[in-house]
Prior knowledge:
The protein is of the alpha+beta class. It is built from one helix and seven strands.
Amino acid sequence: MNLDISKSSQLASSFAPRAVSIDGNAAADVDHVEVNDKGEIYGIYTNGARVLNFTVPLARVPSPDNLTPVSGNVFSLSGTSGDIQVGTAASLGLGTIVSSALEASTVDIASELTLMIETQRNYTANSKVFQTGAELSDVLVNLVR
Length: 145
């Protein structure tokens, strides 16, 4: 099959390729992620590029005690909670974000474990008392017969 496209054109003027230059970076993987005190999440790539990927929004409600609890550990606005104010960290008095911080628990694990063991032993002792009482009742009923 021969195809003659010499008489076809798609351009209104003559075509000449322009000089080609590279204006981008080579493909790279994400090396790590950084979060600053404004809640900006940056992806740091293996080629050194630093790209802003997301900004964490913060919200404030005038009366958080009046929010309505919803299934799934979520709260929704109510008529008495007030309107929600949304912004970014360090704006509108919303505070800042502390990256890589660990929030420690205020629970004393040793005392809670001790209390759990004591409770379990008391439960076991009480159940044995009831079991012994039931056995004594059975013996008495059998003696009367």
